[in-house]
Amino acid sequence: MKTLRLLHRWAGGLIGLLLALLGFTGALLVHEDAFLRATVPHAADAQRQDTATLAAAATRIFAAEDRPRSIVLATERKGLHKLSYPGETQKGAYADQDGAIVQAWTSNWARPEVWLFDFHHHLFAGDTGEIVGGIAGLAGLGFVITGLILWWPTRRMFHLRAWPRMMKRAAIVHHHRDLGVLVAPLLILSLATGATMNLKWFSQALRAPFSSPATMEKASAPPKIKGGKLAADLDWGRVIGQAQARFPGAEVRTIGLPAKTGGLISIRLRQQPEWLPNGRTMAWFDPATGKMVASRDAQAMPLGSRITNADFPLHAAKVGGLAYRLVMTVSGLALTLLGTLAVVTFWGNPSGLPKRRKKKAVSPPMPKPKPEPVEA
Question: Other C-beta atoms within 10 Å of 110: how many?
Fold first, then answer.
């Protein structure tokens, strides 16, 4: 137990602040749609999913001189389309559901929700940041497990407090221990889903009992079909209509142009049973003719793939409504508090040993005065 306690303290002291920042930014991102509705024009508009409206918006957006690479369509909670542009540029834009640009940016720093996501998911470091974040998630899972083991002998001292009784080391450690065990299930969910999204090998290892990695890779691979040159007058109503006819009742979620010559137009849809906000149901089209050449039903994918598709909605609270968003907010804020106070207490006393009080110097007793002789 002594070694386990030492490992728990040192690891927490070294990366506790990173976990705290990930928890805090995650808690903020849970409410991204509410922030946009309050700050961006038309973000509170009602969602429109009829073919004519979607086709008109796609035609207008893709006809622009500065054409985006893809459109993420409006949802019930956010009435804006989000546009992404090709290449490594940080350019992006929001458009209303008629296809008119309402806000554009050329740097992630121009939009708070964009740079918050970039930090939370990439640590401002692209693919490398993803790997570091995934490793931090695994370390966080280790903290939760070792913390539960260390808490067990002290379980009878449990007290429910949102904040330490006093800002002294003993009180902070007691609060850290009890708060950690209270929110442990939420932290395990947040940290595990975060790690699976960032670390492919970890995700495959967890899903291996349900579906082999090779089976899941094959199921998610795009079709090996070569498309023609993108037509200038493509009938987007026909394209979107085919996707809706192939998957009746599904919500059209994204429209993407070919990434390179010979590629296909892709449309993602979300069927009612799917938790993933943008779905994993797919339809592909020849850019030259607008004809559907392939499709994929997310409900027919292997079980391991369907479990994987639940990682993001569980992690980002995209299911369960307001109640679950509040639950995941608590998870993020609890991780923030646990990580911050762990760093404070560790660096205030890395050894973890109680500090010895300096003994006050005791002055020697004054000699008693000798009694004067009494005269006879």
Answer: 14
Would you tell me how many other CB atoms lie within 10 Å of the CB of residue 248?
A: 7
Of the candidates 247, 127, 263, 267, the residue with the CA atom closest to the CA atom of residue 199: 127
Quickly count: other Cβ atoms within 10 Å of residue 323's Cβ.
8
Q: How far apart are CA 279 and CA 296, in angstroms?
A: 11
Token pair recorded at residue 300? 């027919």
Report the range of poorest mean pLDDT among 26-30, 38-42, 172-176.
Answer: 172-176
Q: Tokens for 66?
A: 């500065």
Rg (the chain; Cα; Å): 29
pTM, rounded to two decimals:
0.88
Q: Which residues 6+ apart lie within 8 Å of 131 measured at CB?
A: 198, 199
**What average pLDDT does the segment 272-277 reach?**
95
Q: What percent of the residues of the chain are helix, what percent strand, and what percent coil, each to the nearest 5?
A: 50, 10, 40
In a 3-state reduction of DSSP, which class is residue 77?
Answer: coil
Distance CA 123, CA 108 (A): 13
**In a 10 Å sphere around its CB, with 0-12 CB exposed, 13-18 middle and 19+ buried, how is residue 218 labelled?**
exposed
Per the structure block, which two tokens stand in for 253? Answer: 């979620």
| Residue 376: Cβ within 10 Å count | 3
> Residue 92 pLDDT more than 80?
yes
Q: What is the pLDDT of residues 73-88, one digit of tens each?
A: 999 999 999 999 988 7
Could you read off the pLDDT of 131-168 as tens digits, one per residue?
Answer: 999 999 999 999 999 889 988 888 888 888 878 888 88
Please give the helix or strand (H or E) that residue 255 lies within, else none: strand 251-256
DSSP character string of 333-363: HHHHHHHHHHHHHHHH-TT-PPPPPPPPPPP
- Kindly report the average pLDDT of the chain as a whole number: 91
